[in-house]
Design goal:
homodimer, alpha/beta, TIM Barrel, Sulfite Reductase Hemoprotein, domain 1, 2 domains, 8-stranded parallel β-sheet, 5-stranded mixed β-sheet, elongated
């Protein structure tokens, strides 16, 4: 399945998505945010299309966006049809809130004509009415609703589908995706919806998405945070990197510090992290506070430092190279990194 | 197994640990940090014992700490023996860096006399020398080393053991613990070691610990961050809460905002999060930016708000109760929360 130039599913790299928070009626603000998202590593971007007055903006955005644009539409099928005609690379609808299956069929037809896929995006907060009163666990409702919509789409001859079924709680989200993965042949868009603020949402998303990815479930992902969307992209990449699935830029190992640490490690690690964030090379850097695990970890890294009393012993590719005073640790680390790249 | 008054393993609640970053020779600073950790929800605290000059401090800390104190010792078995005599509730050693098995045996004997458990803490950064050159994957080395030490301990008649085998990468950590869980009957202390700064470390820990907990692996946990240790405890609780394993205080659902949002939601959600952090009640609060998923999520929460154009519609236990202007949303939410508690 292709979203613009990005392949999703079938073993393609798991694509990172996010969603703009700007007003879609303001194409220049939205495009500026999309460019920031692209710089952060976003690969597919979604924009809300809340009303017909946003369609001109959507068209301008689709024409100029460096990333494939997914039009996110609720309630009004006419907006989805127009979005398909105006250049959206994919539609996202929740068929349960489009009003009737006839209207859904009109959207399917428009997507087919435009040659673009549709995400069937089921969400615990907007489940189809028929499930409201059923005495099923939430994950069963989510999965059953998504599967039923897929069956409808395929009965119309449309199989260019991505599926999601998100809850704001991690456990039903995981369980719903396990069912979808077992029951459906389509690529899955994974994530925990409305996960919360940067702190809570990062943890809920990391756990939920991490558990699914570790089970081999998920073809594209979005981290949902009540925070600037670039932050969603940063978290998404860290989750992928943590499981050695995809990596973007350098990796930093740093110790938690303890009563053994004889340098002020937190600002050193934060400064190294800050400076590494500007590098695109996938170098592995270790910043360690003492001699217990320091030399071992520093040895495994491309470049490492194991701190001693007010000093740091630098390692390059496993070999100790020199000792520097605490104040020079960060600069010396980056000198060593420069010699590698 | 008991660490002071905290039961670990055998189905007991998964205990949250952290480690002090203060100098153990300074009992008052260390005790102050321990009290802050206890307030944050830490249940077992570890302190480094880097040398014999830290033993008096350790003794004072053990005597006055509100939490069971684990003495963390490397290299010098005499420190471990003394720590057992001076009131530590548990010892943590990596038998691989104690020097010889005779010395390990002396530690075992001291722990037995004191009636306290030992954590066999194997770590990728300080693997026993015999594994350095083996052509095994890291997780196999970690697990094999831990299992071999356990066999030694049991051959000495000592079974009051907790086991950990941490790497700074998530995948070998997960794989090592899966092996330990299959091979050993002892409680497991889980975590990703030297996970990094608050941002990266939170994600790596959430993914690694989350995957293990989702598989039913882990009896106590520590999140390792290059950040203040209270932060480790906050992350640990969020991970446990995300999987519905244990919860401390309220839960906040909040949406990521998008082009549909007609109020400035990020500061509202952050303010709600901040004010919720002072509550101990496990209330579920939803802060939602629009009418797509807003009413659905707000209805599932104990108290919720679904924002519209410059206003918020408040829900209490699923029932819409009133509409307030944007500026009054936070106060109104907390008034509703007060009516519940």
């Amino acid at each position: 399945m292709a979203v613009g130039g990005v392949i999703v599913g079938g073993g393609a790299p798991i694509a990172v998505q996010s969603m703009t928070t700007t007003d879609t009626r303001d194409p220049s603000a939205t495009l500026e945010q999309i460019r920031r998202l692209a710089d952060a590593g976003c690969e597919i971007v979604r924009v809300a299309v809340p009303g017909s007055d946003a369609l001109d903006g959507l068209q301008a955005i689709c024409a100029q966006s460096p990333l494939p644009v997914v039009a996110d539409i609720h309630f009004d099928h006419r907006l989805a049809i127009e979005a398909a005609r105006r250049g959206a690379a994919k539609l996202r609808i929740n068929p349960g809130n489009i009003g009737s299956m006839d209207r859904v069929d009109a959207v399917i037809e428009a997507a087919g004509e435009a040659g673009i896929p549709i995400r069937i995006g089921v969400n615990a907060g907007s489940l189809a009415a028929e499930y409201h009163d059923r005495d099923w666990p939430l994950f069963e409702k989510l999965a059953a609703s998504a599967v039923k919509f897929c069956e409808h789409f395929t009965s119309r001859g449309f199989e260019d589908i991505v599926v999601s079924a998100k809850a704001s709680s991690v456990v039903p989200t995981i369980e719903a995706y396990r069912l979808l993965s077992a029951r459906l042949p389509y690529p899955l868009h994974i994530g925990v919806t409305e996960a919360g603020t940067a702190f809570t949402g990062t943890i809920k998303s990391s756990v939920g998405i991490g558990v699914l990815l570790a089970e081999g479930i998920g073809d594209t992902l979005r981290v949902s945070l009540t925070a600037p969307p670039e932050e969603e992209v940063r978290v998404a990449w860290e989750v992928l990197a943590s499981l050695d699935i995809r990596r973007r830029g350098p990796e930093l190992i740093s110790c938690p510090t303890c009563g053994r640490c004889q340098v002020d490690l937190v600002p050193i690690a934060e400064e190294v992290q800050r400076r590494l964030s500007t590098l695109a090379t996938p170098v592995k850097v270790a910043v360690m506070g003492c001699v217990v695990n320091g030399p071992g970890e520093a040895r495994e890294a491309d470049v490492g430092v194991a701190a001693g009393r007010g000093t740091g012993l630098l390692f390059r590719r496993g070999v100790p190279v020199r000792k520097v005073p605490e104040s020079e640790i960060v600069d010396a680390l980056f000198e060593e990194i420069d010699t590698l790249t």
